Structures are given as structure tokens and as C-alpha cells.
Amino acid sequence: MRAVGVVTRGTTNPNRLRRMDRWIAATHGVELRRAADPLAVDLGYGAAPWTAVELLGRLRRVRPDAEVVGVEIDPERVAAALPYAREGLGFVRGGFEVPLPGGRRPVLIRAANVLRQYAEGDVPAVWARLMARLAPGGLLVEGTCDEIGRRHVWVALGPEGPRTVTFATRLGSLERPSDLAERLPKALIHRNVPGEPVHAFLTAFDRAWAAASPLSALGARQRWIAAVRALRAEGWPVTDGPGRWRQGEVTVAWEALRPGPASSA
Is Transferase included in the keywords of this UniProt record (predicted)? Predict the structure, then answer.
């Protein structure tokens, strides 16, 4: 079968996806523990296999027999990763078709920094293809982060479609929440303009952040928590709670940020 997709830049760094991994382990841990086949896919892991190695370690804290398969479209990257393969960790060549031995269906597909170079109009078909590969109760996590993982935004999708959008950051490096706009995933990044829901959300977040500035003396974490509480009070459908907010995260229902009618996403 021909690999579906194009070769990415391949940029990767150790611990780059730590925020996404921790969120997955915390919020998808129940499904992972219940899964008959606790298999996860690191799609488009890049020029080095660090993110796949780290994903396995983090998932095994939740499910000791979890497995990870790194999938890369570039055969040279697969060859370079093979020396790192071990029990529970493998690497194969492939793309959005997610070729797995024996027709296995993963309980998790993580696709980080993969769709940045694609057109916005390509996103729905890619999402649909990946969601179709999930096992029952499975999760697709697709998003973008900076080079060292300080700022990250991702969409979580089940077999039925998009569920939530999560914004995660190192709070000590943040001037205002809208700084995360440059890391919006492809489905949203071109929609950060007046009249679009994601722009309205980030504008409201900046406003709440400014209003919480007196709490800066107590630290950026307390200011972030107060700003998220204000967003929820305004009616934004925040789906998580203070335990995640303290990590510099906030998760919002997809429907509240869904692009306007002009988008095919």
C-alpha cells in the first residue's frame, strides 16, 4: 500500500510533546486501561524517535503493557529509529493510512506538528481517515507546538468527530493567552480573525487575563486559574477543572470554537 501524505520538516526535540502526553495520560487513561489492545501510534514522529520513546514511557505509567508504534513516511527516518525499537516500541513506514501489522486498530493516534504544511481544506479528509483507524473508544489528538514545547494547542477527536480544543503553555513565558494563537492547529489557525469563534475566545481570554492582573503577585498560575474561571462564568464551555488549569491548560468544547460556515473543517 502506498504511504499517504508528504514528508514533513521532521523537526523534533526531547520532551517537546510532554504537555500533550500528560494530558492524554490524565484524560484518556480510563479508556487506555479498559482497552483490549492498548496500542498507540505516534504519527509523523520526525527525524528522531524521541517523541515515540517518551510517549511509551508516559502511557506505561497508566497501562504497564501499553505499546507504541511510530509511523513515518520517510524511509530514512524509519531506518534511523529502528535501533531504538524494543518490546512494546516499534517503527514502520507509512502515512495517514496508518499501516499496522495484523490490522490492529489503535486506541490512540497522536499527530503533532504533522498538518502544519497542509492546506486547511485538507484537514477534514485527514481527520476522517485517521478517525476511521481508531479502535472503539479511541482518541485522535492532532495539534501543534513550538520547538521546545512551551506552547501547544491540540484538538481531541473520537470516531464521531472533534470533541475539544486544549490550550497548554508554560505560564512563566506567557504575556497574554492570545500568544498561543500562533500554535493553533491547521483547522483553526487561519480563523483567528474577527467574526470567527476562536478569535472571540482568545479575545475574551486576553480580557479575563488582564482583569486578573492583580493576582500576578501570587504567581502566573493563580492568574491563569482566575482568568479561566472568568471565561467559564461568561459561558464559554470549559470542560476541565482546576486540576488541569494548574498545569497551564484549559480545554474548551469544539463546538464553541468550530470555524464559521466558510470552512470545510
Answer: yes
Task: Please tell me the predicted confidence (pLDDT) of residue 210.
Answer: 98
Phi, psi of 250 (to 5 degrees): -155, 135
- pLDDT of 5 over the 50 cut: yes
Residue in this structure with the C-alpha cell 505499546, named with its chain if needed = 67
- The 10 Å CB-count burial string (b at 16+, else e) for 146-179 is beebbbbbbbbbbeeebbbbbbbbebeebeebbe
C-alpha to C-alpha distance for 110 and 25, rounded to whole angstroms: 12
Task: Give me the mean pLDDT over the 218-247 stretch.
Answer: 97
Cα 127 to Cα 148: distance, rounded to the nearest angstrom:
25
The mean pLDDT of 56-84, rounded to a whole number, is 97
Distance CA(159)–CA(65), nearest Å, equals 24
- 139-145/151-158 β-pairing: antiparallel
Q: What is the pLDDT of residue 1?
A: 60
Do 141 and 55 form a contact (C-beta atoms < 8 A)? no
Closest CA to 72 of 39, 125, 111, 40: 111
